[in-house]
Structures are given as structure tokens and as C-alpha cells.
Amino acid sequence: MPIPAAELEADLRAAFPDAKIVIEDLAGDGDHYRARIVSSAFAGLPRVKQHQLVYAALSGKMGGALHALALETSPAP
Amino acid sequence: MTETAQTDIVSEFIGKTIAENPVTLFMKGTPEQPGCGFSAIVVQILDHLGVDFVGVNVLQSDDLRQGIKAFSDWPTIPQLYVKGEFVGGSDIVREMFQSGELKTLFAEQGMLAA
Q: Which end of chain A is more exposed for a tag (fewer CB within 10 A), N or C?
């Protein structure tokens, strides 16, 4: 079940207000996205924890409504 | 059997598997025949590095497929474990491979042929 990019971005924006977020719809089907997120929330965290924060922000959509979300996270430079 | 008992059995199986095998990949399909592009990428990287690993096909059981997600607090497959520690899914494994971190990790664990 696809979800619109705007909804994805709104969820991420709510969780990471300071973030730079770039979302790409990889297949044009609303179901395979790539998100690049740069946020101070990731500072000092291992990648697994960074991605877990993102998945938590999407509150269960990942692996459910959303089939694929390639993630690149990094702390603010 | 109650649902709780089933969950316990699955998490016990996962715990035992990652304790007994230095490198475990929970994946869709098998290393010889991956059932998903993301799983295939991680298999290719491990093969390229020459690391011995055990592939566990989560498609064999829905309890396992859901169980590993709960166990790792991670919503997607594949999932790579090294020495009992969750390393990441395909994005993290690929990033770590490209940066050389993954090779270093395996080298530190003495898992690469000299």
C-alpha cells in the first residue's frame, strides 16, 4: 500500500525538526523511497540507532505500508 | 500453544543461532538463491570479502519473519549479525562495505583469511 512522499516527509519533519531531508521516489510507485536525513539528533549514535530513530518516527509504516525505504542518515556537519 | 510461548521459542531460536554462528544473515531466500534484491546485495558483499556466514531464510516461517523484526527492533530483512551483535540491514552493510569499516570489523574478529 503506497504512501505519498509528502506524508513521509511530514512524519520525518515532525520527528527531526532541525533536519535536512531529501526524499526520492525511486520507482515512481509511492512504495520505494530513498531518504537522506541530516540531523543533529543523530550525533554520536551508531548507524543502527540512527536508523531505529527514523523507523520509530514512521511509527510502524516501515515494513508495513512502506515496502522499501533506503536510508542515509548523518549528524549535522 | 499460546502466542507468547511461540514468541519465546522463536526468540530463543534466534538467540541460539546468533550465539553459535560468528556471522549470521537473516535473509529472504538462501545465499545460493536470494529471494530479494536487498538480501542478494548483502550476500554478494559477504562473498566478496570471503567471510563464512550462515544464511537463515526467514521465508520458511512467518513466526521467524516477524520474530527477527521484534528481536532486533528492526522492521526489514536482511539483518546481519556478527558475534551476536546486530550490525545492520542492507543500507548500513553497504555503507560500511564502501567505507572499508566492514572489512575492518571482520578483520578485527579474525574472520578474514590473511
A: C
